[in-house]
Amino acid sequence: MSKGLADQEHLAKNIIEIYRKHGPAWTALRGKFLYEKDWLDKFLALLPKRASILDLGCGAATTLGTYLIAQGHNLTGIDSAECMIEMAQQNFPQHIWLHQDMRSIELHQTFDGILAWDSFFHLTPADQETMFGRFARHAKVGTVLMFTSGTSHGEAIGDMFGDALYHASLAPDEYEGLLNHYGFEVINRVAEDANCAGHTVWLAQRFEIRGEE
């Protein structure tokens, strides 16, 4: 393995440790301004009242989680950083918060909505491909899925308080192929949405049960 590939692999594996280290500081810096509101409203418009939502990479639930709960929905939050789950539990003890890695979740239930916002894109391209099977196992006909990604296949390194922060993405046609394989239809997609801090957002809904092993 080349040094560059080894470095990328190390950074990808270090994501959880970075959020364990900087989770509270990042949460405070992030604040409560909800620049994601328009996309959350699109997501919620497709859900029933008092929907069950699986939030993968839920963090402390101070922004997206707070908004979803305020609209009357029931959250199950997953995060691999213990400090994030502890803060979410303190903020909303009536909801379910689980210290787990999204790459290995097996909750043996389905949800009305699945959200992987600013979390899914920290996985390697190979792990992202595998995640679509996990999305499917937690989805039924009608389940709405929303996630953020990059704009093309590749890896990029950001920064969190001086630590290198790994990101990756598949190509748009790869995401579309995986969604289609598992019976999801793209409802909306915007690349680098200027109205959402430059995020590339995918909104899809499952219309057919297929692709599950």
Structural overview:
- The protein is of the alpha/beta class and 213 residues long.
- The chain has a single domain, classed as Vaccinia Virus protein VP39 (Rossmann fold, 3-Layer(aba) Sandwich).
- It is 36% helix and 30% strand.
- The protein contains seven helices and nine strands; from the N terminus they run αααβαβαββαβββαββ.
- Strands 3-2-1-4-5-9-8 form a seven-stranded mixed β-sheet, with helices on both faces. It has a two-stranded antiparallel ribbon with strand order 6-7.
- Helix 2 packs parallel to helix 5.
- It is globular, with a radius of gyration of 16 Å.
- The N terminus is likely disordered.
Strand content range: 25-35%
Secondary-structure content class: alpha/beta
- Average of per-residue pLDDT values: 91
Tell me the name of the CATH homologous superfamily: Vaccinia Virus protein VP39
Task: Kindly state the number of beta strands.
Answer: 9
CATH class: Alpha Beta
Report the major sheet: 7 strands, mixed
Helix/strand order: HHHEHEHEEHEEEHEE
Radius of gyration: 16 Å
CATH architecture: 3-Layer(aba) Sandwich
Major β-sheet strand ordering: 3-2-1-4-5-9-8
Protein name: SAM-dependent methyltransferase
Keywords: Methyltransferase, Transferase
Organism: Acinetobacter populi
GO molecular function, one term: methyltransferase activity
